[in-house]
Amino acid sequence: MEEQKRSGAEQSGSPIEGQNLLEWYEALISAALVLVLLFSFFFRIIQVDGESMVPTLDNGDKLIVWGAGYEPQRGDIVIVDSYTSYGKPLVKRVIAKGGDTISIDYSTGAVTVNGKLLQEDYIAEPTYLGYDVEFPLTVPEGTVFVMGDNRNASLDSRSSYVGCIDERDILGKVLICFLPFSDFGVVK
User: Fold this and answer.
1) Given the residues 40, 82, 92, 182, the one annotated as active site
2) Out of 5, 7, 30, 52, which one is annotated catalytic?
3) What are 104-163's pLDDT values in tens digits?
């Protein structure tokens, strides 16, 4: 009698175990699908290529970028689409938006936007390197003026080669640096 109870319990346990395993697989597949959708439509993962954002970001840092419904704001670090001749996304900081007037005094390294001196505690050193763009410059509507934080080692909107960036070419705002773990954190 005990043997019958035991074999009955074993038989009734098998379908439950199989059903639990199936539910676990379904949950895992659903979670993977949600992650794929999130990273397809809302987030992107980008790797920094170069030294133009030092000291804020280093070459090889891996970033999570928010793109859905994003509108560029002054001070944001953004990813510019890879339409450039680099063939890779550009990582730069928004300095001025459409309608703003920017001026750079290369002798003092001072950057002003709409007549106000920027307090740039994030830069490697003052802006002494100039390119071919003349200042003062009024940024065209629908575009942004971007520069790297490593101003004297960055090809950016100061050069007509890059110029002002159309807002539609911005993939999104950098939120988090997640690799290497030593640099993990919110990017400001």
Assistant:
1) 92
2) 52
3) 999 999 999 999 999 999 999 999 999 999 999 999 999 999 999 999 999 999 999 889
Q: Which two tokens stand for residue 188?
A: 């400001």
CA distance 179 to 188: 16
Q: Is 92 a catalytic residue?
A: yes
pTM: 0.79
Query: Can you tell me the distance from the alpha carbon of 111 to that of 14, in angstroms, rounded to the nearest whole number?
Result: 72
Q: What is the C-alpha end-to-end distance of the chain, expressed in Å?
A: 71
Distance CA 80, CA 87 (A): 11
Q: Is 52 a catalytic residue?
A: yes
Query: 95 and 74 in contact (C-beta within 8 Å)?
Result: yes
**C-alpha to C-alpha distances, 20 to 8, 12, 16, 31, nearest whole angstrom:** 19, 13, 6, 16
Alpha-helical (H) ranges within 42-77 are none
User: Quick one: pLDDT at residue 15?
Assistant: 66
HSE-up (13 A, CA, CB side) for residue 134: 0
